[in-house]
Amino acid sequence: MPGFLNATLAFLRNTWRGLTSMRTALVLLFLLALAALPGALIPQRSLNQSEVDRYFRDYPNLAPILDKLGAFEVFSSVWFASIYVLLFISLIGCLLPRCWEYYKQWRSKPVRTPRNLGRMPHYEQATLDASVDEVMTSARKRLRGWRMVEREEADGALSISAERGFLREIGNLVFHFALVGMLIGVAGGKLYGYEGQVIVVADGSEFCNSGTYNYDSFRAGLTVDGTQLNPFCVRLNDFEVKYQPTGQVESYRVDMQYQAGGDLDTNTWQPYLLQVNHPLRIVGDRVYLSGNGYAPKFTVTFPDGQQRTGLIQWQPVSIQTMLSQGATKFDPPGVQDEAQRRQSQLAITGLFAPTATFDGKVLSSGFPDLLDPAVAVDVLRGDLGLDSGRGQSIFSVDQSMVDQGRLKRVARQNLRPGEEIRLDDGTRVHFDGVERWANLQVSHDPFQPWVLGFAIAIIFGIGTSLTIKRRRVWVRAVPSPEPDDSRSARTVVEVGGLARTDQAGYGEEFTRLTADLLGTGVDHSPQSRAVAGSARERKS
Amino acid sequence: MPVNQTLSTYSDMAYATSVVVYIAAMLLYFGEFAYGRTGAGVRKRESALVNAGGGATSTPVIGHVETPQKRPLSERLGGMAVAMTVLGALVHAASLLLRGFATGRVPWGNMYEFGSAICLAAVVAWGIVLFRQLRAERREATPTQLRGLGGFLMLPVILLLFLSGTVLYAKAAPLQPALQSYWIVIHVAAAIVSSGVLLFAGVASVLYLLRCRFENNPLKLAKFGSRLPTSQALDRMAYRATVIIFPVWTFAIVAGAIWAEAAWGRFWGWDPKETCSFVAWVVYAAYLHARATAGWRGVRAAWINIFGLAVMIFNLFFINIVVAGLHSYAGL
Ligand code: HEM
């Protein structure tokens, strides 16, 4: 039994060692990069469902297999998650011991000067006309700012061990910890955030963030049930779009008002100009302008003289020309009888063009701006299927009702604003004009500031870690064994250097340092009586 | 703001001129590379020069004045190549500036301008490396060897410029609303500089691999390999360029995320461009890790660096042109 236990423990220990090794981290990083690539190459459901549908049509054999593998939602797939979870376990397993090690290093003194300095990657030696003390003083001066220890060695030589660049490790740790923090922040956003889309017509219509039912679509975080949304309201007064002659958009501006907090009680409105790149930020939520289009306005006058006006968004089919399609639906007023109502519902469906061009009688649009609006519509009468229990698109009628003959076309015509169609039963359909609508996106993510904070820590951490070099220098001064009789003391000075991390770029600094300490590189003639101290003076 | 057509035309002319000047520079670089004396001879002369300034170990002969040697033709070609590079870069910069003045905005609002700016960043990065290496106290390679890199950098730069100027060319026009933000200055500038410097790093890594083949077996690539700087020097150049620019690339991605938060309603949404930038970032992180992992330091790390550059280029072209995403305002 103990044997089994030992074997298990050994297995666990080895697994842990393996997982937290640098090599594993490298492999996992690679895997992460490779696993993310399909996310860029294969259409993703979360971004573009229609592209995914097209992929299924184009590759009917391949697509279902890819779908099983999760290739259409890479970033929420199990295998992608398992890679980054492993990577982060490895990361934490790697970081904790390193923190401890770093702490120990920070507490300890720079290491003893090696016996044989000549073996160091960087090494210079010179005999100077100065006493050991003078050499040490000037070396001490030159190495100001380094962590330094002076030691006297067994043979009487004096040496300095100096070390610099501790911030490098700090930067490295900050960077890696901030990565963990960022992951947690992103996960928090997925738990506590939400995002809703709603179309609001810019004719003074309002939208209130009081419940998810007000939205056209709503994506809730895992802990969000929609009951505790931040209360605020917006009102869209006007929507102005400027176009260049080429049809390219120059600017979108929504003239809007909003109220939140105390303003809700007093019913006061604050003005705001909503633009792309300038979201409205209120009480922890952000409101974005994420789309726009046209809403044609129709007034139906029923045979008994009652009127109903419909103003509902139509959907752009072409972004370049803003040709739009949609369906505006009406219930006959004052009809109590269910069966009768289902025979006399109306739908106005077809195309809207902001700048009408006709190819024969077929309407299309020549320009995205509202220069010469027109609609080409079918008027359908019968059962719209609104009570069938099946959801239906607001942009179209239920085609199965048409196929079953329960919804019949009673007119087809092109209309300009002010024109109308008279139906066989005397009903008049009047095309009043057109408004613009804005698609608003409301987003909420309480963790966003944290993610930003960690991102900044990542940048500074990596910047520090990569620009600062961890390096060591040793200086040893020994009285010259053969004193020059004409002169006083001479000293043999050795300088050794070692870059603890990647060596790239350390050589230059070492060269300058030895130039200052040994007087090399300043005056090369052997006659020169360069003293380290004077070399330093010349420099400053 | 209307576009100033005259300035825009001048900008296009400057662009074409800079490509021609770069081609001349490249040919001159290659001229020196091909006709220069092979490594050994030059190195002897250079090391004599270095030793003259080498300090305590040297024993100069007193009273001997070296007769100034006439510089061989190949070296003069190299000097001209550097001069042409500087001239090309100036004209190139003028082309971008004129675009900016013509449109009254930053000159990197579509793929054409972006590609052009990246090339300028790469050329400037090369200029800085050359300048610093020539001035360094401890030179890692002879000036001839160093200049030898120039042609290999100019080659991809010219190809990129050619592609940008033909396939990707876009008329001077104002920015679309999604791009009207000061973040375009910050985010895109950081991305341009990173891409340019990483292009240089990638070229250095490719040459490193070639030089390694030669060093492992001097019979392979004998002529070519012997003219390159040592593998150690090439490796360091690639590493230092990457190390300096990695935080900038990190910053570019973060700035992009901040902008995305304001423009698209979320700071990260795995848009193809975001995804590809992330992949490139992870690959470069892997490169830095490889440099700290036994057994991965040399050749393998260089391959990772090249792979990183491949992802960057893929990100620039394929993602912008082929894949539909939020970044598809290439102006095509
Ligand atoms: C989330 C994934 C990770 C990323 C994006 C990442 C990124 C980086 C980067 C960019 C560097 C270069 C900074 C420098 O050289 O000082 C670095 C260094 C380092 N990383 Fe990571 N890392 C990750 C995970 C890990 C893991 C799992 C380990 C442990 C096995 C680890 C251990 C190290 C070590 C020891 C260094 C210092 C290398 C050196 O001295 O140059 N990292 N990391």
TrEMBL record, chain A:
<keyword id="KW-0201">Cytochrome c-type biogenesis</keyword>
<feature type="transmembrane region" description="Helical">
    <location>
        <begin position="173"/>
        <end position="192"/>
    </location>
</feature>
<feature type="region of interest" description="Disordered">
    <location>
        <begin position="519"/>
        <end position="540"/>
    </location>
</feature>
<dbReference type="GO" id="GO:0017004">
    <property type="term" value="P:cytochrome complex assembly"/>
</dbReference>
<feature type="transmembrane region" description="Helical">
    <location>
        <begin position="78"/>
        <end position="100"/>
    </location>
</feature>
<dbReference type="InterPro" id="IPR023494">
    <property type="entry name" value="Cyt_c_bgen_Ccs1/CcsB/ResB"/>
</dbReference>
<keyword id="KW-1133">Transmembrane helix</keyword>
<dbReference type="GO" id="GO:0016020">
    <property type="term" value="C:membrane"/>
</dbReference>
<dbReference type="InterPro" id="IPR007816">
    <property type="entry name" value="ResB-like_domain"/>
</dbReference>
<feature type="transmembrane region" description="Helical">
    <location>
        <begin position="450"/>
        <end position="468"/>
    </location>
</feature>
<dbReference type="Pfam" id="PF05140">
    <property type="entry name" value="ResB"/>
</dbReference>
<keyword id="KW-0812">Transmembrane</keyword>
<protein>
    <submittedName>
        <fullName>Cytochrome c biogenesis protein</fullName>
    </submittedName>
</protein>
<keyword id="KW-0472">Membrane</keyword>
<feature type="domain" description="ResB-like">
    <location>
        <begin position="22"/>
        <end position="510"/>
    </location>
</feature>
TrEMBL record, chain B:
<feature type="transmembrane region" description="Helical">
    <location>
        <begin position="272"/>
        <end position="290"/>
    </location>
</feature>
<dbReference type="GO" id="GO:0005886">
    <property type="term" value="C:plasma membrane"/>
</dbReference>
<protein>
    <submittedName>
        <fullName>Cytochrome c-type biogenesis protein CcsB</fullName>
    </submittedName>
</protein>
<dbReference type="GO" id="GO:0017004">
    <property type="term" value="P:cytochrome complex assembly"/>
</dbReference>
<feature type="transmembrane region" description="Helical">
    <location>
        <begin position="152"/>
        <end position="170"/>
    </location>
</feature>
<dbReference type="Pfam" id="PF01578">
    <property type="entry name" value="Cytochrom_C_asm"/>
</dbReference>
<keyword id="KW-1133">Transmembrane helix</keyword>
<feature type="transmembrane region" description="Helical">
    <location>
        <begin position="77"/>
        <end position="102"/>
    </location>
</feature>
<dbReference type="GO" id="GO:0020037">
    <property type="term" value="F:heme binding"/>
</dbReference>
<keyword id="KW-0472">Membrane</keyword>
<feature type="transmembrane region" description="Helical">
    <location>
        <begin position="302"/>
        <end position="326"/>
    </location>
</feature>
<feature type="transmembrane region" description="Helical">
    <location>
        <begin position="182"/>
        <end position="210"/>
    </location>
</feature>
<feature type="transmembrane region" description="Helical">
    <location>
        <begin position="13"/>
        <end position="35"/>
    </location>
</feature>
<dbReference type="InterPro" id="IPR017562">
    <property type="entry name" value="Cyt_c_biogenesis_CcsA"/>
</dbReference>
<dbReference type="InterPro" id="IPR045062">
    <property type="entry name" value="Cyt_c_biogenesis_CcsA/CcmC"/>
</dbReference>
<keyword id="KW-0201">Cytochrome c-type biogenesis</keyword>
<feature type="transmembrane region" description="Helical">
    <location>
        <begin position="114"/>
        <end position="131"/>
    </location>
</feature>
<keyword id="KW-0812">Transmembrane</keyword>
<feature type="transmembrane region" description="Helical">
    <location>
        <begin position="237"/>
        <end position="260"/>
    </location>
</feature>
<feature type="domain" description="Cytochrome c assembly protein">
    <location>
        <begin position="123"/>
        <end position="327"/>
    </location>
</feature>
<dbReference type="InterPro" id="IPR002541">
    <property type="entry name" value="Cyt_c_assembly"/>
</dbReference>
